[in-house]
Amino acid sequence: MSLELPPRLRRIGLWTALSATxxxxxxxxxxxxxxxxxxxxPVPVTDRAxxxxxxxxGAWLAAILVGILVWGLIGYACFAFYRKKHDEIPVQTRYxxxxxxxxxxxxxxxxxxxxxxxxxxxxxVLDEVSADEADHQITVVGQQWSWTFNxxxxxxxxxxxxxxxxxxxxxRPTLVLPVDETIFVELRSPDVIHSFWVPSFLFKMDVVxxxxxxxxxxxxxxxxxxxxxxxxxxxxxxxxxxxxxxxTADEYAAHLQDLADRGNTGxxxxxxxxxxxxxxxDEEASVQGEEPE
Length: 293
What we know:
Elements: H1 7-26, H2 30-37, H3 49-81, H4 97-125, E1 136-143, E2 146-151, E3 163-166, E4 174-178, E5 183-188, E6 194-198, E7 203-207, E8 213-217, E9 223-229, E10 241-247, H5 249-261, H6 280-287
Parallel strand pairs: 1-5, 4-10
Antiparallel strand pairs: 1-2, 2-3, 5-8, 6-7, 6-9, 9-10
Helix pairs in contact: 3-4
């Protein structure tokens, strides 16, 4: 018994689906259309972000090509064999050597290509400029449950004074950065593992007690952006938010001067435990007959 639809009904169904798709796309705002073009990625705002942006788009392209191949094979099987009138079941143990080679070799090649481009992108993004070579050095402390930003002996102030800004769960702090100048960031935590994440940077890095992770970058676009902790770190993890404001060099210098005028001089690093590997250093101290900190 044939379930084939008349050609007229098939054409009506195709045009209905196409019209619905176009209507849905036309209903999107300009912002939504831009999000679709970027495949839901934010606009990159640092010199390192485009590498991640390109990797994301490449992964989507590969996924689309694989989808087209799979859908094409499914469609071919459906339309090539649906007209057979007999009820004979094809042999289920017969193999197709070309197809078996395809679905064995293709995934291996894909994984190798993804691995190569992922490692290459990672190396480019983490190609670090040292603290001495960077224009500015900032130490970020993530603690339960907010952030403290230390601007270390910045030339925008006087080259010898460090200033800081801290926040709370109720009053999020702002990390101010100068546009088109190199930033070296060191990450510290005095308690548990946090994660420094600014979505518009297309980048995140863990903040680990006793381990000073670091990275460098150059902001390329002025504006205000949202940052947050991306590692579940306790009861108020969801409120561990901060802002990032990329400004001109003059505005950056004025911000540091304002922090100095308010008395926020020196560094606020979260105590000695920010340099301690919790549990490990205590154990070593006990073995050596010392009192753990």
